[in-house]
User: Fold this.
Amino acid sequence: MSLQLKRKENLRQGLRRIAEARLQEVSRLMGKAGLTAEPVHTARKTIKTLRATLRLTRGALPEDARKQRNQVLRDFAGRLSGPRDAAVTLAAFEKAYRESLDGDQRSKVRLPWVTRVRQALAGQAHAPVKAETYQDAAESVRRLTGNVLPFQDDAQKDGWEDTVEAGLRKTYRQGRRLLTDIQNTPDAPDEQWHELRKRAKDLGYQLALLKKLKGVKPLLAKLDEVGEALGDARDLTLLREYLNKVRDKRELTPKEQQSFRRLLAYIDRQREQLHRHALQIAQTVYRNGGEKFTARMAKRWRSWHTG
Assistant:
């Protein structure tokens, strides 16, 4: 089943078709006895696309119903966060430690503290999420089947303006506002960067539904680049937080302490570079105001939809 809108398709019917297909994908994954990192990643990403669709259609949905569905999806995704966080932290650790060696062959001998960190993270990353920890939340998700997008006045109002314009404009403005705040804040906190990533990802999920519109594919490529850079930076933030909690740092040998400090310094430099790169690309995405951006998308939608 295509997860993009079709040219002659009723807009709300198309959005509902795609949302229901994604909900079925989540339900299929939930049917397993326990979820490991890979299906957890798939389920969480699919839930993010559903939540982005709820935000896109906020102008056409009853507010209480939209918030309730968003909370149900958010709660379920939260139950699955453990293995995913450990998996990305492990991957970030492997890459960062390797690159922090900077070609020093003598440092490639596996140090005890490195082995301990790797084993601890691998144990968490590969541990399945027990079904009993998420089944009640999963059941709430299943109950959304058939009515995940409860549109109002479905038959009377099916145009762009009544269905997606307000939501798309708000998502774009939120990202643009965060970008401005970061630009005006020396040493912007990690959470601010993380919020920018979430809003850029939201915009990407929403525009992916409109992928066939003129100019959307290059925009999606830029949003992917922003999301990837900020995602890598976020993974390094999680890694640094994890390393700060290593209990036996004081018991490290001088050689181990040197490698530990070198890794932390690498993490800080790399995060700064990733933030700087994301900022450069994001400026090209959010260069227009929300009204101008959505007006342009509306024009392209009408041209494609009626063509």
About this structure: The longest helix spans residues 254-285. The mean pLDDT is 91.
